[in-house]
Write a structure and sequence with these properties.
- By secondary structure, the protein is α/β, with parallel strands linked by helices.
- It has two domains: 3-24 and 269-397, Aspartate Aminotransferase, domain 1 (Alpha-Beta Complex); 29-266, Type I PLP-dependent aspartate aminotransferase-like (Major domain) (Aspartate Aminotransferase, domain 2), CATH 3.40.640.
- The chain is built from 13 helices and 15 strands.
- Strands 1-9-8-5-4-2-3 form a seven-stranded mixed beta sheet, sandwiched between helices.
- It is globular, with a radius of gyration of 22 Å.
- The structure holds pyridoxal-5'-phosphate.
- Pyridoxal-5'-phosphate binds next to helix 4 and helix 5.
Length: 400
């Protein structure tokens, strides 16, 4: 039989009959009940579910404070506001992330400065941060890419030395652990996202956790128009209806419908994490011996929450391009993806003057990476299909 025919892309039979997406939410009857119940209550927004959800996340990660937002992006915007980022300020971050990370700096009038990644673990390189520090550096936004914590000992000591605020974009890292501590309190502020592909979902939603009371108060004001109702902080003491807008905030509030879903989802987080970790382990043990790819390197001092499982192609050992291999896997009904296009490759950033070549390790990772499906609702059978699909496609394109 013609070997070319065996791959689904050349007319062969796909590994799977049905398409497996790269990520998907897990919603059960308990979640549905929680939301429906909230619809029957007095408050569908600004009600009690917000505080309950904030408390559930804060307790899980071990933080003193948590502030829910309408999205992870809104939460990052709030964090940049609370950090005092403004015109003329530089904020150092990674380009191996979703555009929202550095967009939040632009929202506040600051300038994103892109540090390169560690070539092995793919998180922001402390050495690269160090080389980019100037007198205008105000903050650092780390990205715990794929769920693996950044190198916080080095980053926090740089921040202390230079008086910088550290914001952790932990959209991938709810439940990740760094030296025995959950991600959520190591940076000054930590952002979580509740988009459906993330660890838990509220449809759209985000949160900042912090141990700093002053930052917490700024985040709360920013979320709701900068309006203050606390009578001790406003001028008119005897008018019960009175409120004051003291800063320019937004309406970035989460609804109670979302927060009640979040409370219900948090109960399943340990199960979700267990599934993600076990599937990632299966991938690694089945694929680490293939000489044409690199499976994710994990630092010994931390434990990933496994939002993404990415393989890196050794293109010199393959007779196909990343595009061909990507398309071949898609044809097998394996919903692979690519994370991420370096942020400054985006036309908007190119117009701002960022040039390709800025972060060589970030750019070469982008050229070689493929994200495999990973989400808790997958079955062991799905995981085996992905492994079989990767082996099938890689062995077809392997040199010799
Ligand atoms: C999902 C994500 C965001 C944005 O979160 P939203 O809730 O979608 O606004 C930011 N950064 C990273 C790394 C993400 O993966």
């Amino acid at each position: 039989m013609d070997k070319k025919k065996e791959l689904a892309i050349f007319g062969g039979t796909p590994i799977r009959d049905s398409y497996l997406p790269y990520g998907q939410q897990w919603i059960d009857e308990e979640d549905i009940h929680a939301v429906v119940n909230t619809l029957k209550n007095d408050f569908i927004t600004t009600g009690p579910a917000i505080g309950q959800f904030e408390k559930a996340v804060a307790e899980f990660v071990g933080a003193k404070y948590a502030v829910a937002f309408s999205s992870g992006t809104a939460a990052l915007h709030g964090a940049c506001y609370a950090a005092g980022v403004g015109k003329g300020d530089e904020v150092i971050t990674s380009a191996m992330t979703f555009a929202a990370t550095s967009n939040s700096i632009l929202y506040m009038g600051g300038s994103p400065v892109f540090a390169d990644i560690d070539p092995r673990a793919y998180t922001i390189s402390p050495e690269s941060i160090k080389n980019l520090l100037t007198k205008n550096t105000k903050a650092i936004i780390t990205v715990d890419f794929t769920g693996q914590p950044s190198e916080y000992d080095a980053i926090m000591s740089l921040a202390e030395e230079h008086n910088l605020v550290v914001i952790d974009d932990a959209a991938h890292a709810l439940g990740a652990n760094y030296k025995g501590e959950y991600i959520g309190t190591i940076a000054d502020m930590t952002m979580f996202s509740f988009h459906p592909v993330k660890h838990i979902t509220t449809g759209e939603g985000g949160m900042i956790t912090t141990n700093d009371e002053a930052l917490y108060k700024k985040l709360v004001d920013f979320r709701s128009h900068g309006i203050i109702r606390d009578s001790s902080k406003i001028k008119e003491k005897n008018k019960p209806w009175y409120y004051e807008m003291q800063s320019l905030g937004f309406n970035y509030r989460m609804t109670d419908l979302q927060a009640s879903l979040g409370v219900s989802q948090m109960k399943k987080l340990p199960l979700f994490l267990e599934k993600r970790k076990s599937y990632a382990k299966n991938y690694t043990s089945a694929l680490e011996h293939l000489k044409e790819i690199v499976t994710p390197y994990q630092r010994f001092e931390s434990s990933s929450s496994w939002h993404l499982y990415i393989i890196r192609l050794k293109l010199n050992k393959l007779n196909g391009t990343r595009e061909e291999i990507y398309k071949a896997l898609q044809a097998e009904n394996i919903g692979v993806n690519v994370h991420y296009i370096p942020v400054y490759f985006q036309p908007y950033y190119q117009h701002l003057g960022y040039k390709k070549g800025l972060c060589p390790h970030t750019e070469s990772l982008y050229e070689e990476v493929i994200t495999l499906p990973l989400f808790p609702k997958m079955t062991n059978r799905d995981v085996e299909d992905v492994i079989a699909g990767v082996k099938k496609v890689i062995s077809y394109y392997a040199v010799e």
